[in-house]
Write a structure and sequence with these properties.
The protein has 165 residues and is mainly alpha-helical. It is built from 9 helices and 2 strands, in the order H-H-H-H-E-E-H-H-H-H-H.
């Protein structure tokens, strides 16, 4: 869902990250931000939090600096809010270069401004098709096997593949 949203030109939100966050990264960041509510103090912070610097886990599991020079910036009880904001911002922008490359590739087929007119779901359906298609709907458009005439939608119809079994 995040990829389609970004391809459609829509900004990601923290809610989008939580929807696809298999490592519970965002929940962990929220826990760091509110850790004082659980009785953790400046003295006990590093007993509970295993991070020493402004590094975070990328989507592919690597630990990367979340700001320039992050490997040299100590994470402390006092700057934990800044750490959480920066780590979240890193995740929100993590795929920007890849999305830009995909949009550039898609621009060879579709004018980029048109992508922004679509919702993420509509764009996904246009590119990938319907996630489920009824057999009855498929049979209504059925033609003789091997018939290579084009259908009104421009697709080549080869007939019911079940007949070949």
């Amino acid at each position: 869902p995040c990829v389609w949203k970004q391809l459609a030109g829509m900004p990601l939100t923290q809610d989008d990250l939580e929807e696809v966050d298999l490592l519970l990264y965002i929940q962990n960041l929220q826990g760091i931000a509110s850790i004082h509510e659980n009785g953790v103090t400046e003295e006990t912070f590093h007993e509970v939090i295993p991070f020493d610097y402004f590094e975070g886990q990328s989507s592919d599991g690597r630990f990367v600096p979340i700001v320039p020079g992050g490997r040299a910036i100590p994470l402390t009880f006092q700057n934990r809010q800044n750490y959480v904001e920066r780590a979240t911002a890193y995740r929100l922008q993590e795929m920007d270069l890849q999305i830009l490359a995909m949009r550039e590739g898609m621009s060879w087929l579709v004018p980029v401004p048109l992508l922004s007119l679509m919702t993420a779901h509509a764009l996904e359906q246009q590119v990938c098709g319907m996630p489920q298609i009824s057999i009855d709907v498929l049979q209504k458009g059925d033609q003789v096997p091997g018939d290579r005439r084009e259908s009104p939608a421009g697709a080549v119809v080869l007939g019911d593949p079940r007949r070949l079994l």
